[in-house]
Structure formats: structure tokens, C-alpha cells
Automatic annotation (TrEMBL):
This is Fumarate reductase flavoprotein subunit (Iron(III)-induced flavocytochrome C3)-like protein. It comes from Ramlibacter tataouinensis (strain ATCC BAA-407 / DSM 14655 / LMG 21543 / TTB310). SUPFAM superfamilies: FAD/NAD(P)-binding domain (SSF51905), Succinate dehydrogenase/fumarate reductase flavoprotein, catalytic domain (SSF56425). Signal peptide: none annotated. It holds the Pfam family FAD_binding_2.
Length: 441
């Protein structure tokens, strides 16, 4: 068995190195998971964030697989721990990897090596030989590598800035939004095989503008900033755009169910930038980001430091503060703190921003992975003209759009990757053994 990895060894594993947890169905408390998170609740959570843009059969396959995968993962060296302080609402739904995504990736690679898998780094596959929907060979530059079966797990196209630019186009303000995107994950997901498979006639699913896109600190590096660049304070304050006005309900739902909509919301704002504004009451209630916020003793001072129009900023904050109807604040539930007579409203966790010091975070769209991918089925097969291949399979981000047409909820990407990685690997092994049997006969 041969694994061809596009990256050098130190960047192996794609975006899995940046993850930290897995969303898991369970009907009773299980090791690091508390209470219960039954199939129907998981499905309703997914249905809500995708707006129904999901294949229910494949989604439920993922959900059910998430309930049994942890023992398999442990056998390959993965370790789990309870949810961390500050990871709101996830102790019931998500199992955290001890050591994070890097430890997960290292465990898998160690297990693969122990099983005799030959791993080659700096070996990007740029094309496949396919005959009548069957895989024949993979090509790395001039080298041609034949095999009896193949699993494609090459990610999306989020690192291909030209493709992002083409997908998002130019907006009515004459801007090219993708020029201001930051890539949270690997720089090696260029979409080369995705584009190649499209040219080969593979069936494609998904919208190229839909992605796991988070509002992250504008000071984040262009690639591989990972989880620490996220700013989780949005639901505790207000978000304003470059014109110093609010543009969406910050308290719509729990943060793990809504954090991944904010990148797209910011992408639609002028200059593709937004500003999260909080006061000292919010400090300590969210996971601290890697970069400190801009700090000020007064709101007018904060507006000036963020280079926002002071008069408009103060009108926005004063209108919001006056509209707050504070009841029993509790950020662990959908509380009764809300605004009245304000557009857009803030439906939960609405408290006046009035206690100094004040903080502001400039945020940009941070793309984790794109949802355009290969259409597949419950056996992870690649399809050509509606017909499944019998020896070419797909897993991970390269097929996640079958389940995630849009939206995101924390940890579901790893649920999809784990479920379909196992399916694709099992099906590829069966296809290879079948080829062996035919050769012997």
C-alpha cells in the first residue's frame, strides 16, 4: 500500500492537523462525553446549519458512524480528553483529541507505518489515468504508479487563490472579495485533482462559494494559522462593519452552531472586514485568542483606534445599548437577554456594552475548506455520468459537500472525514482483493 502526500513531512495530514475534536452521536454518557446526543438531535443540528442542503442518507450514515468510531481510533493510537474550559457547550457533543490535531495526525501516520504502508512526502499527484470509469494509475510528475484501487483524499481548493477569486468573482462595489480571504488551514489544498477529475467527467457536487469560513483575526498569517486565530467573542458583544454599523444577529444561536457563518457574513461586507466589540464583562467567558484585542478606556477612543467613523460608531453602540432588555444572563443557555426595536436584533445574550475597558478585534474571512467536491454514495465511490467506479473512491474534504451543502457545526468535518475515510479504505481494500482473485483465476 502506498500513500502519496503532497506536503513535506512536517506539514503532513492536511487540515486534520488543525482540528481538535470530533462531533459524536451517543445515547448515554460515554468516556469523555456527558449526557446524551442522540441521532435525531445531531441530524436536526446538521439540518439547521445546512438549511436542508444535505444528502440525508449520507448524513445519517456519518452520524451513526460517529457513535462507534472512537474505539477504532484508539486502536490506532488516538487519545481523547474532556472538553477544555472555554469550549462552550461541547462537552456533550464533541470528543476532544488529546494533543489536538497534530497528535491525531501523528498517531495515524505511526499506525500506517507499523502496518507497512509506504509513505512518500513531497509527492503531489497531478493527474490520474482512468479508463471507462476505472482507476488505472496515478501520476506524480513524470512518474506513473499503477494500482488496483485508489482513494482520493486531496482536500478542497481553498489554498488556490486564483480559483477562489474566480469562484467569488467581483462584487457590486468593484471588489474581489477573495483577495481579502485568509486560509486557516493547509497551503497544499490547491484543488489540482478536483479540477482534473472534473475534466475527466467525474460527477461534481456543491457550490464553489460555499465553505467552512470563519471570521478570524485580521492579523492571522496567510496560511496555517489554525484554531488560535479564531475570535470566539462575537456572541458576547456586537459586530460592526467598516461603516461602523451592525449587520447580523450576534445572538442567533450557540457559538459552536454559528461560528462558521461569520466568515461568509464578513466576506459580504465592504472591504471584507468586520469588528467585534466587547466590554470587560465578556472577558474570561470565551477562549482567549492568540492576538490581544485593541483596548480603550472609552468607546469613542476605541472607534478612533479601530479607524472607524466615531459618530456612526457611537450611534450604533448607543442604539444597541438602549435596545437591550437584560433578563437572566447565562451564556450556557439560550437566555432571555435580547434587544427590542433594533434591526438587526440580538436575540440572546444582549447586554449593554458599557463597562470599561473596551476591546475591539478586526476580523477577516478565514477559509478552512471548500465544499465543492466529488459526488459519492454510501460506498464512497466516485461517479462518472451517474455510474459508480468499482475501484476509485473518495474521502474527506474532497467529498464533504455531499453532507455539507452550506453551513457548519463544530466537529462535523472530522465526523465526515472519519466515517468516509474508513468506508473508502475498506472498499478500496475489497476492490484490490477482488482484482487479486481475478488475476489468480
Amino acid at each position: 500500500m502506498l500513500l502519496l502526500e503532497a506536503s513535506p513531512r512536517e506539514w503532513r495530514g492536511g487540515n486534520s492537523q488543525h482540528t481538535r475534536n470530533l462531533r459524536c452521536m451517543h445515547d448515554a454518557p460515554q468516556d469523555v462525553l456527558v449526557d446524551a446526543y442522540p441521532e435525531e438531535e445531531f441530524w436536526q443540528d446538521l439540518l439547521k446549519v445546512t438549511g436542508g442542503n444535505t444528502d440525508e442518507r449520507l448524513a445519517r450514515l456519518v452520524i451513526r458512524a460517529s457513535s462507534t468510531c472512537r474505539d477504532w481510533m484508539r486502536r490506532h493510537g488516538v487519545r481523547f480528553q474532556p472538553s477544555l474550559a472555554g469550549t462552550l457547550h461541547l462537552s456533550r457533543t464533541n470528543a476532544f483529541f488529546m494533543g489536538g490535531g497534530k497528535a491525531l495526525v501523528n498517531a495515524y501516520y505511526r499506525s500506517a507505518e507499523n502496518l507497512g504502508v509506504d509513505i512518500r512526502y513531497d509527492s503531489p499527484v497531478d493527474r490520474l489515468e482512468i479508463q471507462d470509469g476505472r482507476f488505472v494509475a496515478a501520476c506524480v510528475g513524470r512518474e506513473r504508479i499503477e494500482a488496483r484501487a485508489c482513494v482520493l483524499a486531496a482536500g478542497g481548493f481553498e489554498s488556490n487563490r486564483e480559483w477562489l477569486r474566480e469562484a467569488w468573482g467581483q462584487n457590486e462595489r468593484g471588489e474581489w472579495p477573495a483577495d481579502n480571504f485568509i486560509i486557516r488551514g493547509t497551503r497544499f489544498n490547491q484543488g489540482v485533482l478536483l479540477k482534473h477529475m472534473t475534466a475527466q467527467g467525474a460527477d461534481i457536487i456543491g457550490d464553489p462559494t460555499q465553505a467552512h469560513c470563519v471570521a478570524i483575526d485580521a492579523r492571522a498569517p496567510l496560511y496555517d494559522g489554525g484554531i488560535v486565530t479564531r475570535v470566539d467573542a462575537v456572541s458576547l458583544g456586537v459586530m460592526v462593519n467598516r461603516d461602523a454599523v451592525r449587520f447580523y444577529d450576534e445572538g442567533e444561536d450557540f457559538w459552536p452552531k454559528r461560528y462558521a457563518i461569520w466568515g461568509r457574513l464578513v466576506a459580504l461586507q465592504p472591504g471584507q472586514i468586520g469588528y467585534c466589540i466587547i466590554d470587560s464583562k465578556a472577558v474570561g467567558r470565551f477562549m482567549p485568542p492568540v492576538f490581544p484585542g485593541v483596548k480603550a478606556g472609552t468607546l469613542p477612543e476605541l472607534a478612533r483606534k479601530l479607524e472607524l467613523d466615531e459618530a456612526t460608531f457611537m450611534r450604533t453602540l448607543n442604539d444597541y445599548n438602549a435596545a437591550c432588555r437584560v433578563g437572566s444572563f447565562d451564556h450556557t443557555v439560550l437566555d432571555d437577554c435580547h434587544t427590542e426595536g433594533l434591526t438587526p436584533p440580538k436575540t440572546h445574550w444582549a447586554r449593554p456594552i458599557d463597562q470599561a475597558p473596551f476591546y475591539g478585534y478586526a476580523l477577516r474571512p478565514g477559509v478552512t475548506f471548500t465544499y465543492l467536491g466529488l459526488k459519492t454514495d454510501a460506498r464512497a465511490r466516485v461517479h462518472f455520468g451517474g455510474e459508480p467506479s468499482d475501484n476509485l473512491f473518495v474521502a474527506g474534504e474532497m467529498m464533504a459537500g455531499n453532507v455539507l451543502g452550506r453551513g457548519y457545526t463544530a466537529g462535523v468535518g472530522m465526523s465526515i472525514g472519519t466515517a468516509f475515510g474508513r468506508i473508502a479504505g475498506t472498499q478500496a481494500a475489497r476492490a484490490a482483493l477482488k482484482e487479486d482473485a481475478h488475476a489468480i483465476a
